[in-house]
Write a structure and sequence with these properties.
The chain is an alpha/beta fold. Helix content is 22%, strand content 25%. The protein is built from 5 helices and 11 strands. The longest helix has 19 residues. Bound molecules: inosinic acid. Inosinic acid (IMP) binds next to strand 7, helix 5 and strand 10.
Length: 225
């Protein structure tokens, strides 16, 4: 299936309050747990609310797309075993959901690289700060990433993993920002292709915050760094 284009939807929160009050540098949205069942109802059954953020992909849209990706990956594996390698920290929720949508015998491993530090800008340099726990020689490997942006991280990881001679090496990314690419690399499985927006939620952060938002939201521009 072709990657989907983003369909911005209005959150319950933004339909009641102006998004022109969206986040400004140094004025990030506050998260709070609703304190009554009534307030929970007003945010589409969310367990957490967030103010002034545009929802790019709702949890339902994410769940549906992840299920489709899992079915496609299952089909491509033809019953063979899989090692899923999550790129920490952002890919953790995606790996957890995708793995449960894949119907083969799968194991997990994780790597961590340096990424965007505290802001929305990349330093350009990629460094491995956590290596694989187990060899992937002769294995079917699926690298699971939250977002493919410049391509620097996945190009670096792909080269690194290929040195171990896996049987196969494929890449699944939930989001893809093709217009930002610096290194020539494409994922084998893409959830959604998006324009040049900085997004948060469902594992993705801004200065380590917002990873636990259940929906993927747009972080307004204006980096305090
Ligand atoms: P790349 O090396 O530029 O492809 O970046 C990959 C990493 O950058 C991702 O795994 C994210 O950690 C981070 N990143 C890129 N774009 C975004 C974004 O819009 N929101 C949050 N993190 C991002």
């Amino acid at each position: 299936m072709e990657p989907l284009s983003p369909q911005p939807i209005e959150s319950a929160e933004s339909s009641n309050s102006s998004t022109s009050e969206a986040v400004k540098p140094g004025n990030e949205p506050d998260l709070h747990i609703p304190d009554s069942p009534d307030s929970r109802d007003t945010v589409c059954m969310a367990t957490m609310t967030y103010q002034g953020l545009e929802v790019l992909f709702s949890r339902q849209q994410i769940a549906e797309r992840v299920t489709e990706m899992g079915a496609q990956i299952t089909n491509d594996l033809n019953g063979e075993k899989l090692v899923m390698i999550g790129v920490l920290k952002g890919a953790a929720p995606f790996l957890a959901d995708l793995s449960r949508a894949i119907q083969v015998d799968a194991t997990f491993d994780f790597v961590a690289t340096t990424s965007y530090g505290k802001g929305q800008r990349s330093s350009g340099a990629v460094k491995l700060i956590k290596d694989l726990d187990h060899s992937i020689e002769g294995k079917n490997v699926l690298v699971v990433e939250d977002i493919l942006d410049t391509g620097l991280t996945l190009s670096y990881l792909r080269k690194l993993f290929l040195q171990q001679h896996p049987k196969s090496l494929r890449i699944a990314t939930l989001l893809d920002k093709p217009s930002r690419r610096i290194e020539k690399i494409e994922a084998d499985y893409v959830g959604f292709s998006i324009p040049n927006l900085f997004v948060i939620g469902y594992g993705m952060d801004y200065a380590e915050r917002y990873r636990n938002l259940p929906d993927i939201c747009v972080m307004p521009p204006g980096d305090p760094e």
